[in-house]
Amino acid sequence: MARKGRKCVPSYICVAYASLGALSLCGTTTSFVLRQSLRVTPTAGRYLHACPPAGRQRREGKPNEATRKGAATMATSVQVSEPMTLTEKIIAKACDRQSVAPNDNVWVKTDVLMTHDVCGPGTIGNFYKEFGPKAKVWDPEGVVIIPDHYIFTADPRANRNVDILRDFVNQQDIKYFYDITDRGNFKANPDYKGVCHVALAQEGHTRPGEVLFGTDSHTCNAGAFGQFATGIGNTDASFVMGTGKLLIKSPASMQFALEGEIPDHLLAKVTFAGGAHV
User: Does the record bear Ribosomal protein in its keywords (predicted)?
Assistant: First the structure.
């Protein structure tokens, strides 16, 4: 239990991709007991103390009896330079700083840049305009291109968008390009992966602790995998293409408390969308 007078932060670290990312970025080698939730308490000494939920007991410095023989448990205290959220830890790691705080302007290194057939042509055009007609992307394996909006249309202008992506992939030797070869038969395209946000996860491009930018407002979906992911515009994306970096503002955290019972017709997406407008 937490010491008298010390309040635990109302959040839990659960066994999920997000918790794996958080623990791996603490700067100290840690492990944890599977299926055990832990409350986190920041203290004045910049430590994070693992506080078992009410009703559970913890033995100081001893492995949990429920773990298998030889398995380690989370240390009683994990020392970090500053108490930070998972997002802040990822951003701090990406800009080679010990810590970041909300509203800090920092240059972060990019692990993955995703673009598609809507914003890809504009991003590519601006990339060549600013970096030169013979410019090369910062990392051919870091750029992921997924045509998914116009790919099965008959409109020649929409098809031209996809053709621009194909030309760019060949010029830059882009490794991850999920294209189609037969518009008439959806099942005849083994390389095509569908909606870009689903494809990113299914093909292993969403990894805990990394930074992912995408030219789509729904890119933040990838945050479910314990990484910092957000949508950016064509201009920012073209800069990332050429440098692998981007100037961002470290975001603040928000907590939403939902009271009452959720009716059957109300889905998670609707609930979140309503909170986003507050």
Answer: no
**pTM, rounded to two decimals:** 0.69
Token pair for 143: 């750029």
What single-letter amino acid sits at 30? T
How distant, in Å, are the alpha carbons of 28, 30, 50, 75 from that of 79?
7, 11, 12, 10
pLDDT tens for the chain, 278 residues long, are: 333 333 333 322 222 333 233 322 322 222 222 223 333 333 333 333 333 333 333 333 333 333 333 333 333 344 555 689 999 999 999 999 999 999 999 999 999 999 999 999 999 999 999 999 999 999 999 999 999 999 888 888 888 999 999 999 999 999 999 998 887 777 788 888 999 999 999 999 999 999 999 999 999 999 999 999 999 999 999 999 999 999 999 999 888 787 888 888 888 777 777 766 65
Q: How far is CA 166 from CA 26, 31, 119, 160, in A?
A: 41, 44, 14, 10
DSSP annotation of 70: T
Longest C-alpha distance within the chain, in Å?
A: 70
Write down the residue that tokens 């998670």 correspond to. Answer: 268
3-state secondary structure of 243: helix
CATH number of this structure's domain 106-249: 3.30.499.10
The residues, any chain, with a CB within 8 Å of residue 267's CB and separated by 6 or more, are none
**Interatomic CA distance for residues 211 and 94, integer angstroms:** 7
From residue 23, alpha-carbon distances to 128, 219, 268 in Å are: 40, 23, 27
